[in-house]
Structure formats: structure tokens, C-alpha cells
Design a protein that fits this description.
Number of helices: 6
Number of domains: 1
CATH architecture: 2-Layer Sandwich
Order of helices and strands: EHEEHEEEHEEEEHHEHEE
CATH superfamily: Bira Bifunctional Protein, Domain 2
Number of strands: 13
Structural class: alpha+beta
Shape: globular
Helix content: 25-40%
Length: 253
């Protein structure tokens, strides 16, 4: 099986939703193969279908002053933050195409494995925490900190939304919310753990390779979404050169 991967750069959240809708329809109709969009968003707080208003700690005025948008969306889960320096992955994947089929819970566990392996590629030990969704650091001392969140939607076997991995994210933004509704848990990033800067596009390439490995798909970089769909959707996009590697709600946490 093949997976088309596209690096989009920074994309407004509303446009990210529109692109997903376009690709979901195309995947259901068999016009495209499984696809992985990799991007970052301007600052935005998103509320899943199970979001509780009390988990947005900032007022509307405070969010506006910080130039943070707020959106409701159809993924499962509670409240999260997306912003510059965070690698967001939107897999548009037909779970019915796998033999045997992949179920919703297994899909989320596989996304966690992708992120654990991506962190490991940078020397960061990461783990799952029983009863929670997402990926956490595994420090030799102290408490684990959340480095990646996962929240997906599945419609007729086709996935959307996905994961958010903190690369060089300004972690102060997470003080505006109770991330994923989980109290008293800290957040971290690849940059914070390493003590040095890492290029977001480089992490995107690593995540795509790990995605291909975990899901058993050959990753083929696509130059643009236009090329993928065979028609213009108004977003000029490009992929890294020379890289090639072998309605149901699911939680966000």
C-alpha cells in the first residue's frame, strides 16, 4: 500500500479543515491513496465534541489579545492547542483497506507508536500512560510530561484529524487551557527536551518515515495537494527533496 505525504508549511486552521474535507471525499471515492498532511497552524484552541467549556481558562478577550483563534471541530476529545513550532499530522487513511482491517482503538495505538518512534529518533524516550491517550516523556527522574496529543474522527472507515507533536512550540500557550482536560500534567517539546532547535520539516520527514513503517505503507512525497487531487484547491505546497520511504469519534488526550 502507498501513502502520499505532503508538507504544507503554516496553514490557517479553517483551511486545514477544508483540505481534510476535500481529501476525505476523494479517499472515499477512491480517487487518491492514503494521505498524510504535515503542517503547522497559527495559534488556535480547538474543542472536540466532548470538550468542556471550563477547560478553556482564558476569556474571549484574552484569546483575542494573544491572537489565538478558537474552533469547534468534529474530532473526539476535549480541548487542545495548536500553534507555530508544533507538527500537526492529518492522516486521511482508509482503515478498511488494511488486511485485516484496523479498528479505531488500534489506529490510535499505532499513531502513538509513530510518535514514540519519532521521539526516539531524536534520543527522547517516550511512552504511553495507561488510561490516557497521547505520548509522554519517560524521564529518569521526575514526572512524565506530554509531548504529543492525538484526536481523530472516523467516517465510513476513513480517518481525519490526527496528531500534534510539540517540536519548538511556545509552551506558554498551554496555560490558556487545561490540555485535553487532564489536570496537573505538564507539557514539553522536542526542543525543550534536547536543549537545542530542531527544524519542523525535518521532524515531519522523520514522522512520515515512522508512519510508513508502523502502518506498513510505502511513503511517496507529493509535491502539492493540487497534484494529489488532479485539480487546483488554491494552496501552493511542496515536499522535501529526495525523501521516500517504505462518523466515529476517537478521544483526544
Amino acid at each position: 500500500m502507498k501513502l502520499s505525504a505532503v508538507q504544507l508549511g503554516r496553514v490557517p486552521y479553517s483551511l486545514g479543515l477544508a483540505l481534510q474535507d476535500e481529501l476525505i471525499a476523494a479517499r472515499k471515492e477512491g480517487r487518491i491513496s492514503d494521505t498524510l498532511l504535515l503542517l503547522e497552524h497559527p495559534p488556535v484552541v480547538t474543542l472536540g465534541r466532548n470538550a468542556k467549556a471550563r477547560n478553556v481558562l482564558a476569556s474571549a478577550e484574552q484569546l483575542k489579545s494573544r491572537e489565538v483563534e478558537i474552533f469547534e471541530c468534529n474530532r473526539g476529545g476535549d480541548v487542545t492547542f495548536h500553534g507555530p513550532g508544533q507538527l500537526v499530522g492529518y492522516p486521511i487513511v482508509d482503515l478498511f483497506g488494511f488486511k485485516p482491517r484496523i479498528g479505531a482503538v488500534e489506529f490510535v495505538r499505532k499513531l502513538e507508536e509513530v510518535l514514540i518512534r519519532t521521539c526516539a529518533a531524536y534520543g527522547i524516550a517516550a511512552q504511553r500512560i495507561p488510561g490516557l491517550t497521547g505520548v509522554w516523556t519517560r524521564p529518569q527522574a521526575g514526572e512524565p510530561a506530554k509531548i504529543a496529543a492525538i484526536g481523530v474522527h472516523i467516517s465510513r472507515g476513513v480517518t481525519s484529524h490526527g496528531f500534534a507533536l510539540n517540536v519548538s512550540t511556545d509552551l506558554a500557550y498551554f496555560q490558556l487551557i487545561v490540555p485535553c482536560g487532564i489536570q496537573d500534567k505538564s507539557v514539553t517539546s522536542i526542543e525543550k527536551e534536547l536543549g537545542r532547535a530542531v527544524e519542523l520539516a525535518e521532524v515531519g520527514e522523520t514522522a512520515a518515515r515512522q508512519f510508513g513503517s508502523v502502518f506498513g505503507e510505502q511513503v511517496l512525497w507529493t509535491e502539492t495537494v493540487e497534484a494529489l487531487l488532479g485539480r487546483s484547491v488554491g494552496v501552493p505546497l511542496r515536499a522535501p527533496a529526495g525523501t521516500e520511504a517504505g462518523g466515529e469519534d476517537v478521544w483526544l488526550a
